[in-house]
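Re: beginner question about structure tokens

> Can someone show what the tokenized structure looks like for a real chain? I only ever see the sequence side.

Sure, here's an example I had lying around. Input first:
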Amino acid sequence: MTGRVALGLMGAWWAASVCAGAEEVAATPVAAEAHAITAEFELPRVGEEVALARIRGICEFYGLGRLWRKIEADPPSTPFKSDGVTGWFDEWDGVSLYPAGFLHDLKYWAGYPDEDVERLVADAELMVDVARLLGSTPMAETMFHWGDR
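And the corresponding structure tokens:
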């Protein structure tokens, strides 16, 4: 089997896996009411400790039902606080990037040390969220390239 064929098969498997997961999430009531990262929503301030009840509401608003179920089943031992977009700007050209950083922090906080793939997905979602907030990709691509995760 050539590398190109293997990559094609792997890509097909990956796409099927992602689509299957997306269908599961889309079928939940939380996902049906999900809001885009650009929607107005009052998030806790930088450094504010966030209670689980508020985290649940945030997850519901953004359609992160799967993330909430993980947190609810096994809450991390440390309280959650976000520092915004770690090592980067929380605002660019008058646009707040804080929602993207907040959700990224939440995903990392809820994760486990051996979940490298889930962390990569969270990093990619950060890049996409920043691009959506700014309406363009250059800043998001730069963040991802320089390893701001």
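Each token stands for a local structural state, so reading them left to right follows the chain. The helical segments are 3-26, 29-32, 52-62, 65-73, 98-110, 116-134, 138-145.
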